[in-house]
């Protein structure tokens, strides 16, 4: 491990499985060496010691937002890291699965580490490339709801309408993981929206959407045509104007 730390000057140590290791004995020296070198280093919570920078749940996500840094990790294969010829092709994650998993994780303050396993000849099979391309296409128009955002501390989800939330200093994002029924977005959460704020569907036409309050719900009139412009997940930007 010291060879990795010093000879290869790694910035991150990502250990697997856990269990006894010498990391506690060498961690302080590595941290001090990095500080003197003007470098930032980190390690996950599986190195077998008492010191770590982030947690790494595997093949599952957390139920609520976390103040401590965390990173959910999984493979496109539902059971294996790397390529497994025994996995049926229809069992791989689909693009919609990757997108929904990403949204859920980010809304709770986490990172998403997704494994892509090449075959023995170095090829990435279509069942792996296709969901990645679909996720990339979605991020190309809805990435503002993901990149440089933070979790919403009031609550990461509206389970009634299958919504997730993220926030930035100048906007709030509502991400529907299910198609808004009847072209209408609803939430019972007390989201930070005031009269004069503007709502738009990322990846949509760009038009401003009408919103009202109906009892305890915020209701956004999206329209079926507008909803149909986006696939997989629908990210709405609430731009603060008031």
TrEMBL record:
<dbReference type="Pfam" id="PF01120">
    <property type="entry name" value="Alpha_L_fucos"/>
</dbReference>
<keyword id="KW-0378">Hydrolase</keyword>
<dbReference type="InterPro" id="IPR000933">
    <property type="entry name" value="Glyco_hydro_29"/>
</dbReference>
<dbReference type="InterPro" id="IPR017853">
    <property type="entry name" value="GH"/>
</dbReference>
<dbReference type="InterPro" id="IPR057739">
    <property type="entry name" value="Glyco_hydro_29_N"/>
</dbReference>
<comment type="function">
    <text>Alpha-L-fucosidase is responsible for hydrolyzing the alpha-1,6-linked fucose joined to the reducing-end N-acetylglucosamine of the carbohydrate moieties of glycoproteins.</text>
</comment>
<protein>
    <recommendedName>
        <fullName>alpha-L-fucosidase</fullName>
        <ecNumber>3.2.1.51</ecNumber>
    </recommendedName>
</protein>
<feature type="domain" description="Glycoside hydrolase family 29 N-terminal">
    <location>
        <begin position="3"/>
        <end position="143"/>
    </location>
</feature>
<dbReference type="GO" id="GO:0016139">
    <property type="term" value="P:glycoside catabolic process"/>
</dbReference>
<comment type="similarity">
    <text>Belongs to the glycosyl hydrolase 29 family.</text>
</comment>
<dbReference type="GO" id="GO:0006004">
    <property type="term" value="P:fucose metabolic process"/>
</dbReference>
<dbReference type="InterPro" id="IPR016286">
    <property type="entry name" value="FUC_metazoa-typ"/>
</dbReference>
<dbReference type="InterPro" id="IPR013780">
    <property type="entry name" value="Glyco_hydro_b"/>
</dbReference>
<keyword id="KW-0732">Signal</keyword>
<dbReference type="GO" id="GO:0004560">
    <property type="term" value="F:alpha-L-fucosidase activity"/>
</dbReference>
<keyword id="KW-0326">Glycosidase</keyword>
């Amino acid at each position: 491990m010291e060879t990795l730390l010093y000879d290869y000057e790694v910035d991150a140590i990502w250990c697997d499985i856990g269990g006894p290791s010498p990391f506690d004995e060498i961690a302080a020296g590595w941290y001090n060496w990095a500080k003197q070198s003007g470098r930032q280093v980190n390690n996950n919570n599986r190195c077998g010691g008492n010191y770590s920078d982030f947690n790494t749940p595997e093949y599952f996500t957390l139920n609520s937002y976390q103040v401590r840094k965390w990173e959910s990790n999984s493979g496109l294969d539902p059971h294996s890291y790397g390529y497994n010829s025994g996995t049926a092709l229809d069992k791989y994650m689909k693009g919609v699965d990757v997108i929904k998993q990403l949204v859920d994780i980010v809304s709770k303050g986490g990172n998403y580490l997704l494994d892509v396993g090449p075959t023995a000849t170095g090829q990435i099979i279509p069942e792996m490339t296709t969901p990645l391309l679909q996720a990339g296409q979605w991020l190309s128009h809805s990435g503002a709801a993901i990149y440089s955002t933070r979790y919403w501390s009031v609550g990461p989800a509206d389970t009634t309408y299958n919504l997730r939330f993220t926030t930035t200093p100048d906007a709030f994002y509502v991400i529907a993981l299910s198609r808004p029924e009847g072209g209408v977005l609803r939430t019972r959460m007390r989201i930070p929206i005031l009269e004069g704020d503007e709502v738009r569907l990322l990846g949509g036409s760009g038009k401003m959407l009408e919103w009202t309050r109906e009892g305890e719900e915020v209701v956004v009139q999206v329209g079926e045509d507008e909803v149909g412009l986006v696939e997989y997940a629908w990210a709405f930007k609430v731009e603060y104007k008031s």
